[in-house]
Amino acid sequence: MNVLILTTSFPLEDYSSSGIFVARLVNNLALQHEVTVITPGDHKHRLPFINKGVRVIPFRYAPYRWQVISHAPGGIPVALRCNRALYLLIPFLLVGFFLTSLKWARDMNVLHANWAACGLIAGIVGKYHGIPVVTTIRGEDITRSSRLQLDNLILTFCMRLSDRIIGVSQAIVDRLKQRVGVIAEQVCLIENGVDEELFLVQHEWCKDGFLRLIFIGSLIPRKGVDTLLKAINAFGPGSSLLLSIVGEGVEEIALREQVGQYGLTNNVKFHGMVAPEYLSTLLTLHDVLVLPSYSEGRPNVVLEAMAAGLPVIASDIPGVDELVLDGRTGLLFVAGNVTELFQCLDTLMRDKALLEKMGGDGRKQILERGLLWSVTAEKYTRLYQSVQRGSI
């Protein structure tokens, strides 16, 4: 089957983390299908290329040095908030996306869009060519549609033009089914997965008496990393907490300044962006994943940490609360509440046995629920076959 993937985020370099979860799915789909990915270009990539059996089409929408909207940490929304002049490029990006999709869709069996804006484009292209469309909706689509009328309209028309809508968490599926005019059978849940190699990760808990924490993600405001630094600072000087911050983003300078102000330079290390294949090694070297976000869709880093046997301390927010079972596979706290986060950290600092038990229970949960990328790809394959039969 020929599948065309539309996505605003996709790693154009091996070390990039832009849309890495989309790439994980695509690589597993490519084991069964001929897969082509259309994504906005950057300052470097000018021609289609093949990577791991997947054809990638980075389309041009501006002079190359201006193509900076899509692949930075936090994606398009963060890029636009940081530089409002980039809004001038959005019409060109949309036109480029549409024309490129129109061209490459001709010989495809299914169009699969990621995020609502891509789903709107795929829906129009699909109607023109008579090709079924599947759109995957993620947390940011829901969050923005509840705040901005334009995003609400994009999501509405995306859903009307798509043959199937996928939510990556039950919370997202429930919200989508509540929308006016939506047929419940049109919406279904397909969860993201993890790579099987993560189940091989082993730990030496609290090595040298330190509790090693890790945060992985874009350094943007909604990730709440400042809350984590405040909680660590509350332990006072000379604490046995060590934190690795993995990722890049607009908040990095402010977070580095915060670390200096608190005198935590010996406790906190910034790793920057790391290659995705280094993930399992990173998780091996740490004891706990901390995700203090204010909003998420279905954070794959939580699945990956659990598969690697790490307990997770995370904000008690939709999407996350479906994964982290409070007191069993990790600990939840009210987003932004420094005191509660401090208590979570203190609990695991004092109880090494609880660390090991929560880590083991988390890994067991991932296995029992079959949250593997191979399983996710198989579910999408069955869905593709279903919508294709329905279009005949």
Topology:
Elements: E1 2-6, H1 20-29, E2 34-40, E3 49-51, E4 54-59, H2 75-82, H3 90-104, E5 110-114, H4 116-129, E6 133-137, H5 139-147, H6 149-161, E7 164-167, H7 170-177, E8 187-189, E9 211-216, H8 225-233, E10 241-246, H9 252-262, E11 268-272, H10 279-284, E12 288-291, H11 300-307, E13 312-315, E14 330-333, H12 338-350, H13 352-368, H14 373-391
Short description:
This protein is α/β, with parallel strands linked by helices and 392 residues long.
Strand order of the largest sheet: 3-4-2-1-5-6-7-8
The strand count comes to: 14
Termini separation (Å)? 15 Å
Tally of individual helices:
14
Taking pLDDT < 50 over at least 5 consecutive residues as the criterion, the unreliable ranges are none
Supply Rg: 21 Å
Order of helices and strands: EHEEEHHEHEHHEHEEHEHEHEHEEHHH
* Major sheet size, sense and barrel closure: 8 strands, mixed
Helix percentage range: 40-55%
- What is the structural class? alpha/beta
In round numbers, the mean pLDDT is 93
- Give the percentage of residues in beta strands: 15-25%
- The backbone outline, from C-alpha atoms, is globular
Describe the structure.
The protein is α/β, with parallel strands linked by helices and 392 residues long. The chain is built from 14 helices and 14 strands. The strands form two sheets. The chain has an eight-stranded mixed sheet, with helices on both faces. Strands 11-10-9-12-13-14 form a six-stranded parallel sheet, with helices on both faces. It is globular. 48% of the residues are buried. The model has no long low-confidence stretch (mean pLDDT 93).
